[in-house]
Amino acid sequence: MELRLGDLIERSLTGDAHAQKALYEQFAPSVYRLAVRMVGANDAADVSQQAFVNMFRHLGTFKQQASFSTWLYRIVVNECLQHRRRERHRRKDLPTELLDRAPGPTQRIEHAELLEMALGRLDENLRAAFLLREVEGLSYEQLAEVLAIPVGTVASQLNRARTELRKYLTSMMSE
Amino acid sequence: MTCAACEPLLGPWVDGELEPTRKEAVSAHLKVCPACAARLAALRELGETVRKIIVPSPPADLWDRITEQLSAPSLAGRVPARPRIPWFRIATVAALVLIAVYTGWLAYQPLRLPIDHSQLARVDLAPILEQGIPANFTGVADFDFVAAPLDKAKQQVDFRVFDQPQLTEGYTAKRSQVGCCGMHSLVQTEYRRDKEHCVMFQYRAGLPLSFGSAPTEQVKVGEKSITLVRGKSCWAASWLLNGTGVTIVGPRDRGELLRMVARVEQSHEGQTP
């Protein structure tokens, strides 16, 4: 029998391991997908792991009236941003993983791969806004909640993200 | 509408977030402006392309890693921040002040249970569900218990503890204990009716419970969602009572357990955490 999300959350809070796993399985694909696009495939599992641990540890603070996925995305984005900060600090003299993979001039690559690399150059907050909108389909109101910004600035953040992505793509295609 | 006015509205237009009046204006402009129509197509393509990036499924062992980390102390697995000297000095001074204040405060507090953060915690109810509560029951495995009247127990834990002198007719509270394992603690109250025996655990929401392979079901008592577990020897029920995790284990009869749950709920209905 498939349980409602609210029941899964309540049962998880009582320590029911089956409910906790069901909750994980329901959200793992989207959490991992966002993590891969935010921090790269090498670190996505670590970031997803920490995000879920934070989610379960703070599940008692989740208010049932709010959207659970929005609450969870906020945890994931925060974990991705923290991870990037730690990595930048650790590898500040090295290029980012995604830039490492820039193709040689004669190598033929698909448009999607180019975009993946362009995403790697984008500011983390802009990248989160773009991915949450385009891939996860969040509304502007949900984006404002996840990114902790006013709803009025969501459109300008997304415009900046799209403009910069197109700029990076144009420059990479001409290389 | 000019192209300069139209361009910042193309994103919200694609996202379906434009107000109807502006939407009409943008639509009208797009019909007569190939340059803005091309910009719109490029925006759409950007979204379509990012959705085409193939992302593999989460690793198969990710759930095991999560449960392992959840069972460990809360700081495990974190990458420690690199201390910087000025902040470190400030933190050291602050820590010394806090320790002094805390030590002074402790002197006026009742004795607290020692917490060993290196230990793992899991309330394993499988043996009780399998064999019932033994006559010499002292507490669940891995937890160290200290006898404490409920008013004292309330002071020793960091969650709200509810006073429940009776569960159903004849089942009366005999003794309460505070149990500790690693960073977790729980309050255990034993109830007896002649030779019958059951136990109510109260704990901070999220403490992992194990029911072994016993089948579980979800039922409603009033508005409340309850996890019921059918063991070979007895039943158990787990639910959230105003923010505190509660588990009753021991009754042989499902109906009586549900009456116990209803009684506990009614006794503390509306009490805010």
Write a brief caption for the model.
Helices cover 74% and strands 0% of the residues of chain A.
Question: How would you describe the overall organization of this protein?
Answer:
The complex is a heterodimer of chains A (175) and B (273). Chain A is 74% helix and 0% strand. Chain A is mainly α. The longest helix of chain A is centred in the last third of the chain and has 24 residues, at 151-174. The termini of chain A are far apart. Chain B folds into three domains: 3-52, no CATH class; 62-106, no CATH class; 123-268, MucB/RseB, C-terminal domain (Phosphorylase Kinase, domain 1). Helix content of chain B is 38%, strand content 23%. In chain B, strand 7 and strand 8 form a beta hairpin. The radius of gyration of chain B is 29 Å and the shape is elongated. Chains A and B meet through helix 1, helix 2, helix 3, helix 6 and helix 7 of A and helix 1, helix 3, helix 4, strand 6 and strand 9 of B.
Based on the model shown, name its key terms:
heterodimer, A: 175 residues, mainly alpha, Rna Polymerase Sigma Factor, Chain: A, Arc Repressor Mutant, subunit A, 2 domains, globular, B: 273 residues, alpha+beta, Phosphorylase Kinase, domain 1, 3 domains, 8-stranded antiparallel sheet, two-stranded parallel ribbon, 8 helices
List the topology elements.
The complex is a heterodimer of chains A (175) and B (273).
Chain A: H1 5-13, H2 17-39, H3 41-57, H4 68-90, H5 97-100, H6 111-121, H7 124-134, H8 140-147, H9 151-174
Helix pairs in contact in A: 1-2, 2-3, 2-4, 3-4, 4-7, 4-8, 6-9, 7-9, 8-9
Chain B: H1 3-15, H2 20-32, H3 34-52, H4 62-71, H5 85-106, E1 123-124, H6 126-131, E2 144-147, H7 150-156, E3 172-181, E4 184-193, E5 196-204, E6 209-210, E7 216-221, E8 224-230, E9 235-241, E10 244-249, H8 254-268
